[in-house]
Amino acid sequence: MSDELNKEEVIEAAEAVTEEKKETAQSLNAELKEFNKEHNVTLDSPLVVHKKGDYSYEEKTDDYEMNETHTGEERPTLKRHRFKKEKKKSKLPYVIITLIVILAAVFAALYYTGNITFGPKETTTKPTTESTTEDLLVKYKGTIVVKGTYIFVDGKEVNGIEGLQDALKYEDPSPTAYEIIVEDENTEFLNLEVLALLEDMGFFKKGSQVTHLDKTGLMAAAETTAAADEVVSETETTRPESESTTQTTTTEKQE
């Protein structure tokens, strides 16, 4: 019986303490509200940023009030919530990659079509005079070419009939030693002088074949000089009128 009385007394004492705490908390809450009202104090809750995917992303609007379970430093904290916007991904990297691919394709096309080359360019110029002369010497080795009144032995020009005789005087006479080639035939010079000399020296006989060519490519010294003079003459003829006028004016001033 005494144990039951003790339990009841303990419960009554605990309820009294709880009731006292509740009354104290309500009193403090009322005083705090009255103080804020008198001094126009507005408390802003701290800002909390939520990321998408967080458990706290869903906004909750629970109101917090002081009750009997909050005392001292355990007062509830009011918070303001702002939800972070999801940033859109930039398309700039994809644009740059696309431009690089296009430029690479254009560059490859230009390279394989020959519009872009690395290293020295292949020259398509004509062979020099020196290489052309060497080729002609090889081509007309063992021939006597008669071009009008000009004579060539082994691709080299000789000084007329005298030069032909000097070129052959140390060679072994044979009607097959040299092939006779004729370009721009001068019948009188060919028959009466060239072939007659070759027959006397043993390098030609009656009935031997003579080859006729339209163009051998061999040029006598006189022909080369004449061609150069012709080019110079054409250049002076086609000179711009303004340049000619300037030269005339300069000459007049000097006089």
Helix content: 40-55%
The portion of residues forming beta strands comes to: 5-15%
Q: How does the major sheet shape up?
A: 5 strands, mixed
Secondary structure tally, helices:
7
Q: Compute the CA-based radius of gyration.
A: 59 Å
Beta strands, count: 7
Q: Give the CA-based shape.
A: rod-shaped
Task: Note the run of SSEs as H and E.
Answer: HEEHHEEEHEHEHH
| First-residue to last-residue Cα separation | 158 Å
Please tell me the overall pLDDT.
Answer: 75
Walk me through what this model shows.
- With 255 residues, the chain is an alpha/beta fold.
- Helix content is 49%, strand content 11%.
- The protein is built from seven helices and seven strands, in the order H-E-E-H-H-E-E-E-H-E-H-E-H-H.
- The strands form two sheets. The chain has a five-stranded mixed sheet. A two-stranded parallel sheet has the order 1-2.
- The longest helix is centred in the N-terminal third of the chain and has 37 residues, at 2-38.
- The radius of gyration is 59 Å and the shape is rod-shaped.
- The chain starts with a helix and ends with a helix.
- 7% of the residues are buried.
